[in-house]
Amino acid sequence: MRQPCVLLKYGELALKGRNKERFERQLVHNLRHALSDAGFPVRIRRRRGALILSAAEYSDEPRQQARTQREFLVRARELIGISVVQPALRVDRTPEAASSAAVDLARTLRPDGTAATFAVRARRRNKDFPLTSTQLADRVGARIQAELGWPVDLSEPQVEVAVEVDRAEILVCVERHRGQGGLPVGSSGRALVLMSGGFDSPVAAYRAMRRGLACDFVHFTGAPLTGPASAYKAYALTRRLARFQGEAGVLWLVPLGQAQRALATAGAGGLQVVAQRRLMVRTADRLARRGGAQALVTGDSLGQVSSQTLANLATVEEAATLPVLRPLLAWDKEEILTEAARLGTAEISRLPDEDCCALLVPPSVATRSTPGQLARLESRLDVNELVGELVEKARPLRPDPSGG
Ligand code: ATP
Ligand code: MG
């Protein structure tokens, strides 16, 4: 047996017993989702503290095998909940099989035939093996020295060969990549993200996912006062984020234009932006409850713009019945932009759109507001009915992560 596969570690999550079991099950579920459109059946084997990902049936064609392995690697590195991703060869449970796999893998790292210093790190996840870890490492190391002429350097090797003995196989790897880390998405529950077309909210969504929240999304457009550009952006953003959570999550699109005009007509003045936010939050709150979400998530960062003073955040929050989570509350814009670039959302957020918040903006936005002021404004229109209409108008989209 010699099978290319990918070895996934999720770290010794400082979790015990049933909780750990639940996390593992969630991660396997997410992985299946993330690979459901890979185009071929996938096999996931559970080992202690690790998962082995391979194709259910292997092509005999080495190049096809390599492509499959690379595809696994790319997807596993994006899925939240995995801390280390290692392309590996899965071989028979003998020192000889491990040694020749190690030699072949090491050779691929130096195709020009030059030497590299190396070290073999062996471990036995399963102890009923005739050799100790040290003996096994010595055996494999001796073969690499003999066949490739590479010198050993145990303290700062250029190449680390990992040999892991498991209950049914040995896994040999020479590469190690960092995964996203975090808790498997879904293990902390479900949230609804208020997604603008900006830089902040996709990053906020990602950070919420990293803490195990499965995310759905709601985007408010200025329709009928604006075109569809911002909805396309929100759609593209949720599709990008789907790779991190495994399943796509629903995107609700809600046309806010008429309600915005109603607020302006009711004399919102300097409170227009905060009043709009409260409408968004009320609508999101109802959609969230309907979809089984237990919290709202926003991209607010304290003091970033005038609608995000502490007073205004509090006034907006008062309109929600669910907790409003703000993962970026204490982040600087620069930190947010760096993370957005890493996630690949920045290039989408940068596209032009017609943001509904830019409509009907008063000459000066009030930095201070109170729930009382807003309640008085809202009593001049029937807010409940307005929110009911917005929920009625909400349209769900389910992004297809692989689609065009
Ligand atoms: P972002 O904060 O995502 O960069 P932005 O800067 O345009 O977008 P802000 O004015 O900072 O938006 O709004 C703060 C938060 O309010 C956003 O992070 C988002 O959670 C929510 N929000 C704003 N506009 C919308 C919208 N049109 N649809 C859904 N949520 C929105
Ligand atoms: Mg912002």
TrEMBL record:
Gene3D superfamilies: 3.30.2130.30, HUPs
Subcellular location: Cytoplasm
EC number(s) given by UniProt: 2.8.1.4
Annotated PROSITE patterns: THUMP
Molecular function GO labels: ATP binding; CCA tRNA nucleotidyltransferase activity; tRNA binding; tRNA-uracil-4 sulfurtransferase activity
Catalyzed reactions per annotation: [ThiI sulfur-carrier protein]-S-sulfanyl-L-cysteine + a uridine in tRNA + 2 reduced [2Fe-2S]-[ferredoxin] + ATP + H(+) = [ThiI sulfur-carrier protein]-L-cysteine + a 4-thiouridine in tRNA + 2 oxidized [2Fe-2S]-[ferredoxin] + AMP + diphosphate; [ThiS sulfur-carrier protein]-C-terminal Gly-Gly-AMP + S-sulfanyl-L-cysteinyl-[cysteine desulfurase] + AH2 = [ThiS sulfur-carrier protein]-C-terminal-Gly-aminoethanethioate + L-cysteinyl-[cysteine desulfurase] + A + AMP + 2 H(+)
Enzyme class: transferase
UniProt keyword Transmembrane helix present: no
Known pathway: Cofactor biosynthesis; thiamine diphosphate biosynthesis
Coiled coil: none
A Pfam family reported for this protein in Swiss-Prot or TrEMBL: ThiI_fer
UniProt domain THUMP: residue ranges: 70-176
Biological processes per GO annotation: thiamine biosynthetic process; thiamine diphosphate biosynthetic process; thiazole biosynthetic process; tRNA 4-thiouridine biosynthesis
Alphabetical UniProt keywords: ATP-binding, Cytoplasm, Nucleotide-binding, RNA-binding, Thiamine biosynthesis, Transferase, tRNA-binding
SUPFAM superfamilies: Adenine nucleotide alpha hydrolases-like, THUMP domain-like
CDD domains: PPase_ThiI, THUMP_ThiI
Binding site for ATP: L194, M195, H219, F220, R277, G299, Q308
GO cellular component: cytosol
InterPro entries linked to this entry: Rossmann-like_a/b/a_fold (IPR014729), ThiI_AANH (IPR020536), ThiI_fer (IPR054173), ThiI_N (IPR049961), THUMP_dom (IPR004114), THUMP_ThiI (IPR049962), tRNA_STrfase (IPR003720), tRNA_sulfurtransferase_ThiI (IPR050102)
Function: Catalyzes the ATP-dependent transfer of a sulfur to tRNA to produce 4-thiouridine in position 8 of tRNAs, which functions as a near-UV photosensor. Also catalyzes the transfer of sulfur to the sulfur carrier protein ThiS, forming ThiS-thiocarboxylate. This is a step in the synthesis of thiazole, in the thiamine biosynthesis pathway. The sulfur is donated as persulfide by IscS.
Family, per entry: Belongs to the ThiI family.
HAMAP family per record: ThiI
UniProt xrefs under PANTHER family: TRNA SULFURTRANSFERASE (PTHR43209:SF1)
Protein known as: Probable tRNA sulfurtransferase
Gene name of the record: thiI
